[in-house]
Amino acid sequence: MREVxxxxxxxxxxxxxxxxxLRLDIARALAPSARAIQLSGLIPPVDIVLTAxxxxxxxxxLASGAAKLWTGPERFAATIGAFRILPRPIVPAAARTxxxxxxxxxLWVLSGLHVAIASLAAxxxxxxxxxxxxxxVRRGQHNNCGCGGLLGNGPISNALIKRNVGLIVxxxxxxxxxxxxxxx
Length: 184
Known about the structure:
Layout: H1 2-9, H2 18-40, H3 46-71, H4 73-82, H5 91-111, H6 115-139, H7 158-181
């Protein structure tokens, strides 16, 4: 809210910069609804919502990575191999690396350090998973997704792709305030 007010007050200095004028137009469009939300008290502040999204997605990634470690790299390697995307010699290394990567990124997102970069890293990882699922669905495969964790293991499907896209969009919302504010 303070940022919107600051932009609106300094309008006369912004006419020379097209980017600043775009931000001003966005601020003008959002200002009434932002004030209404803030005054109504019915919707929690944006920071609380973004923190809740960040925590929820971190828990999903953390549980997923931990579940893959718990079942062992051999079982996860079999799941990866069933997708028929990676060359066979790379599959065992991927089965050991992916769970660790999920856990590291989950902890990074959870830490709150460089939230935008951490969220974009998590979105990238989910994007890779979603791409693999989309390829397998397109091929007509019906293998296990290998997701593990809180969201479970189920067959690959268009619903799984939609769920992952939803998580990616949520991560975009988490990253957006820092990207727009210039603080990656």
